[in-house]
Amino acid sequence: MELPRLRQPAPHFQSKAVLNDKVFDISLNDYKQKYLVLLFFPMNFTYICPTELIAFSDHLQEFQEMNTQVVACSIESHFSHLKWLSMPNKQGGIRGLKYPLIADKSMAIAKSYGVLNAEEGTPYRAMFIIDDKGILRQITVNDHQVGRNVSEVFRLITAMQHEDKSPTYASAVTTDNVRRPRPLKCGERSSLREVIE
User: Fold this and answer.
1) Helices (H) and strands (E) in the chain, counts
2) Distance from first CA to last CA of the chain, Å, rounded?
3) Is 186 a catalytic site residue?
4) Is 8-165 a domain of CATH 3.40.50.2000?
5) Pair 71, 99: CB distance under 8 Å
6) How far apart are CA 66 and CA 80, in angstroms?
């Protein structure tokens, strides 16, 4: 299974998703003219701490201020997502998550993005950044136990948007002028007040 190519249109997806106890249809077309952070995670109810999903949610307003939306996807059904979203964080749930969870029960989305671990039947912990023109700009694929860093995602999007406005080397954008949430402990909720100045 191959990863999609950078600088090419992102693979289209369409499925059911859950947000605020509601099930609805979702597709890539819903995010035209916005940047999109598409997060894949292995499955619900695992021993792996869901802190990173909660951290993205706690900083969603900051992403939105950058014309960026966040969605997450796993191979669970929308019924499973509803159950996980109803559980408190202290019990390993993700109650209060502010962005959609995509149900990829058929594994079609994970396959189209090249992140399905066929032996285990679950996606790797991957991230794709799609720009406001639907073009794939960034790919990160981690093993199941390795989470993603919200600060780095802010830096990447800032660099991409800077490059879009003024085509120069994006490496000129450093972490010095990017939000840096402090590291979290498992089960701990982040907040905008915890951003390091």
Assistant:
1) 5, 11
2) 42
3) no
4) no
5) yes
6) 31
SS3 per-residue string spanning 100-142: CEEECCCCHHHHHCCCEECCCCEECEEEEEECCCCEEEEEEEE
The tokens describing 27, both together, are: 């597709």
Tokens, residue 33: 């003219």
CA dist list (Å): 63 to 8, 110, 111, 187: 23, 24, 27, 22
**Amino acid at site 18:** V
Each residue's pLDDT tens digit, 51-86 = 889 999 999 999 999 999 999 999 999 999 999 999
Q: According to DSSP H, which parts of the chain are helical? A: 51-58, 60-65, 78-86, 108-112, 150-165
- Any idea where the domains of the chain sit in the sequence? 8-165
Q: Which run of H or of E encompasses 36?
A: strand 35-40
Q: Looking at 49, 135, 141, 195, which residue is catalytic?
A: 49
Dihedral sign, CA of 79, 144, 87, 60?
negative
DSSP assigned state of 9: B
Give pTM, 2 decimals: 0.85
- Taking residues 5-20, what's their average pLDDT? 97
